[in-house]
Each structure stands twice: as C-alpha cells, then as structure tokens.
Amino acid sequence: MNFDLSSLPTTFDMLHLILAALSLILSALFLTRSKNGPETTKAQNLQSPVSEPTPDSVSTSAPEPKPDELKPEPEPTPAKLKTASPDAALQLLTLLQQDARFIDFINEDLSSFSDSDIGAAARVVHEGSKKTLNTYFTLEALRSEDEETRITLAKGFNASEVRLTGNVVGEAPFTGTLIHKGWKVSEIKLPKIAAGHDVSILAPAEVEL
C-alpha cells in the first residue's frame, strides 16, 4: 500500500490546534485526579467529625443512693434560753423578810438552840411566809388525786407537770403512786415598784434612837 506523502498537510490549521490543546488539558486533568484522588479521600475521612451522642440519647436518670449514702437527719436545734429579770425575785425576798423574817431565820446558826426554840421560831416564819404567798400569789395543785394513791399517766402526758421517779422503763401509759400533787401559780399580784427604787436592798438596817 503506497501513501501519497504529498497529500499530508504540512502546516496545522486552527481546528487541529484546538483539538490538540483540549487533548492535552483532558490528559493533564485525568492524571492529576488519578494521582491525588485516594489521598484526598483519605484526608476527607480523617477530617470528618465523629458523631457524638446527643443529650437526648444520654440517660439522665441517676442511680438510687445506697442506704449508707443517705444524708443523716439534722440534729434538733437546742432550745433557746432566756434570762429572767431578777427584780421580781428580789421583791419576793423583800416581802418574805418583811412578813416572816425569812432571811434572818435562814442565816441564823441554829446549832446552839434547842428544838423547842427552833420550833417556836419556825412557827413565826411559817405564818409570815404563808401570809405573803396567799396575799401575792394564787396557788393551785397540779393533780386533784389524793397523795399516796395509785394513778395512771396516759400516753402524751405533760412531762413538765409530772416528774417520773423510781424504775422508769418503757413508754406510757405508766401506773404509779402519787407522792406529791405539785403546785402551779395561776395569778401573781406583786406590788408595783416605784421608779428609782433599789430592789437589791431586801431589808434596810434598823437604828433605834
């Protein structure tokens, strides 16, 4: 087979130049993609964030506390103490000294006196003290039962009104012997104190002229 070399073009026209350029560009793109494709895919896989569990998917229920992990109950608050005014107590001592010579009797050395002498003095103190109490205080017995009788204290009895003695075991109701009825004051009628009066002076000194 013979070729006629004279029929081959000796120069490139515009169409051939364009086709040659497109071929080179496509070849370059294909080679570049084939070379960098696996590394790019690998890098994208490394950079993709790992999906973390959302708050809704996490269980928020806390485990039940063990018995030894429970908080201890708070200790009860101690009762607050208040300071009583000494004026009323000093006034009462003044009245007992005035009516019954109470302070003189208590401070007297009775070792040198006979029982009959002490008894006579005690009668004066007793009568004067009773007069003072009946004049300025209204006294009532806490229990209406007779002493030395058997009584039963129901559950929830007032512990400030009844003091248990002896062999106290268990819980109410308690049955025992009434030793003392107890006392309470239902009314106080102490005299009023003048302004500037020194209540610490229980009895003034006496000078006879």
Please give the structural blueprint.
Blueprint: H1 14-47, H2 86-100, H3 102-107, H4 115-136, E1 137-141, E2 150-153, E3 174-177, E4 183-188
Antiparallel strand pairs: 1-4, 2-3
Helix pairs in contact: 2-4
Gross geometry: elongated
* Strand residue percentage: 5-15%
Helix content bin: 25-40%
The neighbouring-strand order within the major sheet is 1-4
Q: How many helices does DSSP assign?
A: 4
Major sheet attributes:
2 strands, antiparallel
Span between termini? 181 Å
Structural class: mainly alpha
Can you tell me about this structure?
The protein has four helices and four strands; from the N terminus they run H-H-H-H-E-E-E-E. It has a domain at 86-162 and 173-188. The strands form two sheets. Strands 1-4 form a two-stranded antiparallel sheet. It is elongated and about 160 Å long. The chain starts with 13 loop residues before the first helix and ends in a 21-residue tail after the last strand. Mean pLDDT is 81; it is low at 1-12. Helix content is 37%, strand content 9%. Helix 2 (86-100) crosses helix 4. It has 209 residues and is mainly alpha-helical.
Quick structural gist:
With 209 residues, this protein is mainly alpha-helical.
Labels describing this entry:
209 residues, mainly alpha, two-stranded antiparallel ribbon, 4 strands, 9% strand
